[in-house]
Amino acid sequence: MKGVKNDVSVPAQSKFYQVKKNFARNWQIYVFLLPAVAYFIILHYIPMYGVQIAFKNFFANLGIWGSPWIGFDHFERFFNSYYFWRLLKNTLVLSAYQLILFPLPIILALSLHEVRNRMFKKWAQTLTYAPHFISVVVVVGMIVIFLDPTTGLVNRLIVVFGGSPIDFLTSPGWFRHIFTWSGVWQTLGWGSIIYLAALSGVNPELHEAAKVDGASRLQRIFHINIPSILPTIVVLFILNIGSFMTVGFEKVLLMQNNLNAKTSDVIQTFVYQTGLLEGQYSFAAAIGLFDSAINIALLVVFNYTARKVSGNSLW
Amino acid sequence: MKRFTLSDRGFDWINTIFLLIILVLIVYPLIFVLSASISDPQAVSSGRMWLWPVDITFKGYERVFANDAIWLGYKNTIIYTFVGTAIHLFVLLPCAYALSRKELMAKKFILWFILFTMLFNGGLIPTYLVVQSLGMLDTMWAIIIPNVVGAWSILVARAFFQQSIPDQLVEASKIDGASDFYIFIRVVLPLSLPIIAVMALFHAVNLWNQYFNALIYLSDRDKYPLQLILREILVVNQMQLNDPGGSAESLVDQVKTAGLIKYAVIIVSSLPLLLVYPFVQRFFVQGVLIGSIKE
């Protein structure tokens, strides 16, 4: 719209005429949008339209539109199913566990920021980023190797120190810890980048003034650095909340087996299993919809709270 | 005054030790895998090998390189990564540029149209049904197209264009009679190499490392990318990696070699990215940063 307004030489004209003129002059810019718009329509908006199968009994030969409506039957079946509470609990606990560890990259960034030796800092950064570039399949493969009950490094250490080997990967009690801490290993360094950048933007005059007042390094971290990057922290925290129910299920799927399912069964893996492996499309779509509805609700609530409390928010 | 410098030095020490511990925890598993991949399996399983290689052998790598499935997976991954990244740029760059131009009408609507997909999506099953009805099942396109571009990338690239392509430059070219196509290709893109590199690298890493789309959309083993082959070897333990000719080896030896192969295959699949990224690290860091400025 702004572009049109800039044409001061042209006297007031009808809106339609202005639009037509803009198109005539800038049609190529609209062509630039076409591939992306086509992609979003076909692979995002059509699936959103397809979400209606959650309220239908989907038959492939009748198509999405032609299949009969059945209302909330699939949701009721899910809520009343034996697995519902287990799935919900596993998903929430796993997400909450990861969320508790949210401050770790911040601590790493604060620590890296204090390093004066440039060489050391650069090496430390490069090495901590490395696991980010390893695929989730390889990470799970490494977990399997390291935790093997007989040949794995961890169990050999346990035996050396007089313990008896633990079969970590088939034990429901260990799943959450292994999943979460291997995630920390992989994302700790990469997650710190954004905070390091925020820290480098802190006004040096604040530090000078604090030094004159006799503040120690630790005091300056707590009273200058942390408050300065608080807006970044809040925004990233809300973004994390927005994917609260998603829990990195591609990795869960790789680590899951019948024996640890008691804790590793999460909503997203259940969607995969019932939908794609068992072919219950409508039922699985309903569960997926339930999952994203909770995500959106959490995002909206936390965004609202953050805006009220800290003045920082996504929108 | 002296008291403070002393406590500062103490702080430096503690901070350095803290970081060193973290570095050891992060790097040790990687070094262990690297060393184990060229050590005698006996030494690895008995605990004699704990940091540096012991009784060096390249048998694991010989087996990995003799395995056709791994080569084929490698080839497929390279193809998917290159084609996918090229299409990614083709979809992303023009769109982000158009959104950075002030002549564009209904910009707010288009931005919301794109951003909304970050907030809500149809989910696994409806997306699967669309991919299926497009006839992409069991083709390369099922790997490439469903995630060809994300709203986040578009925002980042748009922010870059807004900050670094001066309006006067585009307007001057227009006065000279250049079309928008010409300006984009001849003027804008040559000035945008950093963002192109950032976006291409991010997307290429994702394509190289993803397995889930391949898992759900591909059934023809000849089209499997490397990550699915790795899944079979490392996680599902279902792949036969034994010597095809091989009755010469005892069963015990075969089990040991299987362990060695796992280490070797981790290195073979991860090393390309781990070797390349330190040299392009600044691009990756820039990508994260441009993204954070905008939001």
UniProtKB/TrEMBL annotation, chain A:
Gene symbol of the encoding locus: yteP_3
Name listed for the protein in its UniProt record: Putative multiple-sugar transport system permease YteP
Family in the record: Belongs to the binding-protein-dependent transport system permease family.
Membrane-spanning ranges: 27-46, 92-115, 127-147, 178-200, 221-245, 281-302
Subcellular location: Cell membrane
Keyword Cytoplasm: no
Keyword Phosphoprotein included in the entry's annotation: no
Domain of life, source organism: Bacteria
Membrane topology: Multi-pass membrane protein
Assigned keywords, A-Z: Cell membrane, Membrane, Sugar transport, Transmembrane, Transmembrane helix, Transport
PROSITE patterns in alphabetical order: ABC_TM1
GO CC aspect terms: plasma membrane
Annotated organism of origin: Oceanobacillus oncorhynchi
A GO BP entry: transmembrane transport
Domain ABC transmembrane type-1: 87-302
Automatic annotation (TrEMBL), chain B:
CC per GO annotation: plasma membrane
PANTHER family referenced in this protein's UniProt entry, alphabetically: ABC TRANSPORTER PERMEASE PROTEIN MG189-RELATED-RELATED (PTHR43744), POLYGALACTURONAN_RHAMNOGALACTURONAN TRANSPORT SYSTEM PERMEASE PROTEIN YTCP (PTHR43744:SF9)
Protein name: L-arabinose transport system permease protein AraQ
Topological type in the membrane: Multi-pass membrane protein
ABC transmembrane type-1 domain location: 74-273
Signal peptide bounds: none
CDD domains in UniProt: TM_PBP2 (cd06261)
Species for this entry: Oceanobacillus oncorhynchi
The keyword Cytoplasm appears for this protein: no
Regions that span the bilayer: 12-38, 78-97, 109-129, 141-161, 181-205, 260-280
One example of a Gene Ontology biological process annotation: transmembrane transport
Protein family according to the UniProt entry: Belongs to the binding-protein-dependent transport system permease family.
InterPro entries recorded: MetI-like, MetI-like_sf
Gene3D superfamilies named in the record: MetI-like (1.10.3720.10)
Location of this chain's protein in the cell: Cell membrane
UniProt KW Transmembrane helix keyword: yes
Gene: araQ_5
Keywords, sorted A to Z: Cell membrane, Membrane, Transmembrane, Transmembrane helix, Transport
